[in-house]
Structure formats: structure tokens, C-alpha cells
Write a structure and sequence with these properties.
The chain is an all-alpha fold. The chain contains 14 helices and no strands. The termini are far apart.
Length: 356
């Protein structure tokens, strides 16, 4: 009997293995579908928003001192005083300020005027969105206030500031001219006021001491402070004229621009009061106002009749403040006008230029 050896068919082995492979793949696919997916990386956080424009309340309060005092001076008659008592009342009104405080007030007011320039605010705020760049800008302004005068739009801010101050200068100069002229007119024999105008002032020493006693810091105006604070943050609320004013700038204008630039960078709030207080101090401007006070005292000490007190009021109160404001603003631009041609079609040739 022959032996038969049973062997699997050769074709069946690969088929079985293929089946196992397919099953393994299916199982792996099933396991993979049940696995927890890896979390995606979160998108980068957006940069923090630029800080809002910020100016502390003390700057607005300081500015209100200048605004309210100039308003008081604008109520002084440009002439036509009717009694010696009226002259004394106007003198007392004009003497009621402290020179150092008024100097700070002018610089504070200048900074709020600068913030009325949209060109300057926008030019500075473009650097506020990057925290590192903003901090660098703030540090540079604090280290050197003149840096603020090189920022975009500074010429517009200076133009707005200087125009507003010149408007005050012109109004005060008009009053000073009238008061000083009337001090001469009232001495004329045909002036009915001459009788009391040439009489000696009563209690000359006492009225000089009153002027000195009134030379103390003024209280800020709550109404003016609120209005100026709102104007600083909104960019409007003060009547200004758009203009450009190129460098060089006076130190007082530079300090005003520096305060305004810090405010536009969001770096002049309550936490930065020490910086804004320091920038409101400027020696040249303060010296001008201190000299005005000294000249007023000397004038009153020498004056005897009422018409001389009238002159002291016009010259060393109203005019001196106008001159200090003018010194703050800097020299006015020189306007040159060429000689018009006789024939409209001809262009005038300067004499220094050869024509042949």
C-alpha cells in the first residue's frame, strides 16, 4: 500500500497571508481613527493695543491759570478811567498772579494747544502701537525734550500754539497802548479828569504792599480746567487756527511740545506727573515774568499821582505779560512783499541781478 503525503496547496498560503495582512491594516486603521488627535498650535497673540492719549489733570489746572488771568486782563479798559479808585481796582486785578506759577501755566496751556493739531497727534501716535518703540520714544523725550520738536507734525503743533499766543499778545498790546496813551491824555488841561489824575495817590506805601501781597499763586478755575482737560483728550474745544511754524523753537515751546508728545504716547497721565511738572519749569520764561513783577514794584514805588499808577498798570502789567507771551512764542515770521510790476506781463527783476 502506497503512502500518500498530504500537502497544502501552494496557492492557498499566500492568500491566507494576504488576508491576515488586510485584517491587520483594517485593525490599525480602526485604532488610528479612535486615537486622540494632536492639538494644533494656537495662533500668535495679537499685539496689545496702543495706549490711549493721556494727560494728567494737573496740567489742565495749570493751564487754566493762564487762561483765566488773560481773560481778566482783557476786561481792563483801554482808556477812559473815571476815578482814581477805578485805576487802583484795575491795578489790583493785574497784580494778582505769581510769576513762577504763571510761567508754568503758559507752558501747560501751550501743550494743550499743541494737542489741538491732528497732524502732530497722528504723527506721534504712529509710534505708540509697538511697546518697545513707544518706551524708547518716551525715554528720549524725557532725556531731551527737544527731541519732541523733531517728531512728525511738530511744525503744525508749534504753528497752532504760536498763533494762539500771538492772538493774546495782540489783544493785550491793544489794551496796553490805550492805557499808556490815556495816562498822557488825562494830564491835558482840557481833560475833565485832570483834577483827580494829577493828585497824589492816597497811601502810596499801602497800595504798593497790596500789589506785593496779591502776587501769590492763583487757584485754578474748575470750569476752565474741565474744558481744557476735555480739549486735550479730544483734540478740539479751543478755537485755534491751523498753521505751520518751523524750527528753531524757544525753550518754552519745546517743553510744551514735549508734554504734548508724551500725552500722545499715553505717557503723561497721573503716573507721569513728575515728568510733566518738570517740563512746565523753564527759566527764560519765568525770568521774564519775574522781571515784570520787579518793574511793577519799582514803578509803583516811584509813582505819585494817579496818572502814573495808570501808566504802571499799562506798562508793567498788561504790556509786560504780552511781551513775555511774545518771547515764549518766538519772533514773528517776516513777511516780504515784492514790488509789483508796472506791466502785469512783466516779472520784476531784483536790483542786485544784472539785466543785461
Amino acid at each position: 500500500m502506497s503512502m500518500v503525503t498530504l500537502r497544502p496547496a501552494l496557492s492557498s498560503v499566500p492568500r491566507a497571508r494576504r488576508g491576515l495582512a488586510v485584517a491587520a491594516i483594517a485593525a490599525a486603521t480602526l485604532i488610528a481613527s479612535c486615537a486622540t488627535p494632536e492639538p494644533e498650535a494656537p495662533p500668535p497673540a495679537p499685539p496689545p493695543p496702543a495706549p490711549e492719549l493721556s494727560l494728567n489733570q494737573s496740567v489742565a489746572e495749570a493751564a487754566s491759570i493762564y487762561v483765566s488771568f488773560v481773560r481778566d486782563l482783557n476786561t481792563i479798559k483801554a482808556g477812559g478811567f473815571q476815578s482814581a479808585e477805578e485805576i487802583q481796582a484795575e491795578m489790583r486785578k493785574g497784580a494778582a498772579y505769581d510769576a513762577a506759577q504763571m510761567s508754568r501755566a503758559m507752558i501747560a496751556y501751550g501743550s494743550i494747544l499743541a494737542l489741538q493739531s491732528p497732524e502732530f497727534v497722528a504723527g506721534v501716535r504712529q509710534y505708540a502701537s509697538d511697546p518697545a518703540q513707544r518706551q524708547t520714544m518716551v525715554a528720549r523725550i524725557i532725556a531731551d525734550p527737544a527731541y519732541a520738536a523733531t517728531l512728525p507734525g511738530a511744525d503744525y503743533a508749534a504753528g497752532v500754539m504760536v498763533n494762539a499766543l500771538i492772538r493774546d499778545v495782540d489783544a493785550l498790546t491793544f489794551i496796553a497802548d490805550g492805557v499808556e496813551a490815556d495816562a498822557y491824555t488825562i494830564q491835558e488841561r482840557n481833560d475833565p479828569r485832570r483834577r483827580w489824575a494829577i493828585a497824589s495817590v492816597a497811601d502810596r506805601e499801602g497800595r504798593l504792599q497790596v500789589a506785593k501781597n496779591l502776587s501769590v499763586p492763583r487757584l485754578p478755575s474748575a470750569e476752565d480746567s474741565a474744558r481744557l482737560f476735555a480739549a486735550a483728550h479730544s483734540g478740539n474745544g479751543i478755537q485755534v487756527s491751523p498753521a505751520q511754524r518751523g524750527a528753531p523753537y524757544t525753550p518754552a515751546v519745546v517743553n510744551s511740545l514735549a508734554i504734548a508728545a508724551l500725552a500722545a504716547l499715553g505717557a503723561a497721565g497721573d503716573e507721569a506727573k513728575a515728568n510733566t511738572d518738570a517740563l512746565m519749569t523753564e527759566q527764560n520764561n519765568e525770568f521774564c515774568l519775574n522781571m515784570s513783577k520787579l518793574m511793577l514794584y519799582q514803578c509803583l514805588a516811584a509813582a505819585k499821582p494817579s496818572y502814573e499808577d495808570m501808566f504802571c498798570t499799562g506798562r508793567h502789567i498788561v504790556r509786560d505779560l504780552a511781551q513775555c507771551a511774545s518771547q515764549f512764542a518766538g519772533p514773528r515770521p517776516t513777511i516780504t512783499v515784492s514790488v509789483p510790476a508796472t506791466n502785469p506781463t512783466e516779472v520784476p527783476v531784483p536790483e542786485s541781478q544784472p539785466t543785461g
